[in-house]
Amino acid sequence: MPRISPELHLTLRLPETDAPLRHRIAESILDEIRVGRLRPGDPLPSTRALAEHLTVARASVVDAYDELCSSGYANARAGSGTRIAPGADVAARAHVASHTTTRSSERASSAAPEKPAAVWDLTPGHPDPALISTVDWRRAWRSAAAAAVTSDVPGPDAHPELRRSLAEHLRRTRGIVARPDELVIVPGVGAALRTLVAAAGLGGRDVVFEEPGYSRARTVLDGSGVRTRCVTVDGDGLDPALLRATDAAAYCTPAHQYPMGARMPVGRRAGLVADAAAAGTVIIEDDYDGEFRYDVSALPALRSIDRGPECVAYVGTASKILTPSIRVAWVIAPPALRPGLVRALDASGEACCAITALALAHFIDSGALSRHLARASRTYSARRAAFVAALQQQLSAVDTDGVGLAGIEAGLHVVLTLPGSVDDVAVSAELRDHGVTVPSLADYRTTPGGPRGLVCGYARLPESQARGAAEAIGRVVRRHLG
C-alpha cells in the first residue's frame, strides 16, 4: 500500500541570502515554526512535494530535512515521514540555528555575551537515547511483555535470560569469559558497590579510590562504611605501585579513567592484577563506557587478564551505553566472593525489574545492541571530532601552560585542563550563566590542590552545535586566564 504524504499547506519563502539552498530551506521551515504555523508533532510535506512546490532539486530538500533532524528540530521515522520534534517551537522562538555559519558566529562574537539563546548541556556520563532504534526498542519490550507472568521473587539467581545474553556479549566485546551463573544482575552501579562492600567485608577497611574520581561511587563507598583512601592518578590512570599492604580493595576505571580520561596501559593492568592477586586485594573494575573508543585499539578488561578472575570484581552497566533510565548493572565477582554476594543481595532485597531485564535480554539477542553500539560509536566519534576540533581552534590563541585537552581517545567526554591558578568552579558557574552546563573538576576531587578543568560530555551535542558551544567556553576561559 503506497504511503500517503501529508497535504502541502505551507507557503514557504526562501530567504534571499547567499547561504546554501539547504540552509535557506531549513530556515524557512524554522520561520513557520517560529510564528506557529508549524507545531510540534505536525508532519512535514514529503521531500518530493516540497521540492515541486519550491521548484528546487529534491536533494536540497532532503539535505534540509537531514539538517533539521540532526539539530533536533524534526524527527524522521521509517514509514511515518518527518515530523516537527517536541520543543522545536521553543528553540525556534529563541532563534537557535539549525547550523552554524560564519555570519552567525560573527554576530555572536560582536554581541554582548551575557546569555546566548542556545543552551548546551555538556554534563558527562549521559549517552544520547535518541540514537536507540525505536523499532528495535519497542520490539524488545513487546517480546518481554508477551512472556508469561511469574511469581518468582527477583534475587541473585534471577534473570537467567539476561545473564546468558550478557555472558555472550561480554565475551565478544570485552574478552571476558564467564558462565551465565557467574553474573549477578543488580539495579545500578550503586547497588553493585554496596553489595560488593558487604560481600567482601570492606566496612571499616581501606579502599583505594582514584583522585580525582567518580564522586557518586565514592559517596556510595563512604556511605557503606569503608575508608576511601584517595590516590592521585597520572597520565596512565591508577598506579599499582601506590597500593599498600593494608588496602583491602581498590576501585578503578581503567578503560577511560573518570574523569581525567586516561587509558591504563597493558603493562600497568597486568601489574595491578598480579599484585592484587598476590596480596589478596579485591579490584573493583568499573567498566562504565569501555565499548566506546576512537582511532585506538581495545585494551583488555582487568577481569580478562591472567589471574583476573581471582581478584577482579567486574562491574558493567546499561546506563552508559543505552540510557540512564535503564537501572540495570551486572557484577562478575571472584569465586570467593560469590556466596557473600548472594547473601548480601538476599539481605538487602535490591533487585531489578524482571520485565526490564527480559526486554534488555531480547534487545541483546536480536542483535539490536550490536547495531546500536556500531551506530552510536560512529555518531559519538563524529561529535567528538567536531567538538575537539572546535575547542582546539579556541585554544590555539591561548599561550598558557596547563591549558589543553585530555581523554579524547575513548569514552563520551573530554577534559579541558586549566592552570592551577584558575578557579574552575567560577568558570563553570559563569558558563552556566552563558548557557553552557559543564561541571568543573572540583566536583570530582577531594583535595584543594587537585587538577583544574572542565569535564565536557559531548554525547548529546550535535555536530552543528559544537562550534557554538566551544566558542562560549573559549570566551569565558580566556576571560579567566586574563
UniProtKB/TrEMBL annotation:
InterPro entries: Aminotransferase_I/II_large, HTH_trans_reg/aminotransferase, PyrdxlP-dep_Trfase, PyrdxlP-dep_Trfase_major, Tscrpt_reg_HTH_GntR, WH-like_DNA-bd_sf, WH_DNA-bd_sf. One of its GO terms (molecular function) is pyridoxal phosphate binding. The keyword Glycoprotein does not apply. It holds the Pfam family Aminotran_1_2. SUPFAM superfamilies: PLP-dependent transferases, Winged helix' DNA-binding domain. Residues 19-87 form the HTH gntR-type domain. Keywords: DNA-binding, Pyridoxal phosphate, Transcription, Transcription regulation. The keyword Ribonucleoprotein does not apply. PROSITE patterns: HTH_GNTR. It comes from the Bacteria. PANTHER family: HTH-TYPE TRANSCRIPTIONAL REGULATORY PROTEIN GABR. In the C-terminal section; belongs to the class-I pyridoxal-phosphate-dependent aminotransferase family. This is Putative GntR family transcriptional regulator. It comes from Rhodococcus wratislaviensis NBRC 100605. The lineage of its organism: Bacteria, Bacillati, Actinomycetota, Actinomycetes, Mycobacteriales.
